[in-house]
Amino acid sequence: MGLGVCHTDLHAMNGDWPLATKLPLVGGHEGAGVVVAKGDLVTDIELGDHVGVKWINGSCLACDFCQQADEPVRACRAGLP
């Protein structure tokens, strides 16, 4: 799994917010990689597939948006605070 550093990670590391900076900081909330193993119930990806993990605050996994993999558009009410 690889990850990039987004601007949010830099703000957290640099203490740019009115919150205490906690170090060490493990940044990154998105990742990409290659599938090297999968469980017996996984049917929609294969070994060697390139995959990505997107940022998700929360989702219900049941509404139309979640079922279409559009949960980050924040139309899914479960992702709202």
Description:
The protein has helices at residues 7-14, 64-67; strands at residues 2-3, 31-34, 50-53. The chain is of the alpha+beta class and 81 residues long. The protein has a single domain, classed as Quinone Oxidoreductase, Chain A, domain 1 (Alpha-Beta Complex). A 3-stranded antiparallel sheet has the order 1-2-3, with no helix packed on it.
Compute the gyration radius: what is it?
16 Å
User: How is the largest sheet built, in terms of strand order?
Assistant: 1-2-3
Number of helices: 2
Distance between the termini: 28 Å
If you consult CATH, what is the topology?
Quinone Oxidoreductase, Chain A, domain 1
Number of domains: 1
Q: What does the oligomeric state look like here?
A: single chain
The helical percent reads 10-25%
The SS-based structural class is alpha+beta
Name the poorly predicted regions: none
* Main beta sheet: 3 strands, antiparallel
Secondary-structure element series: EHEEH
Summarize the structure.
The chain is α+β, with helices and mostly antiparallel strands.
Topology (SSEs and partners):
Layout: E1 2-3, H1 7-14, E2 31-34, E3 50-53, H2 64-67
Antiparallel strand pairs: 1-2, 2-3
Could you name the key traits of this structure?
alpha+beta; 12% strand; 81 residues; Quinone Oxidoreductase, Chain A, domain 1; 3 strands; three-stranded antiparallel beta sheet
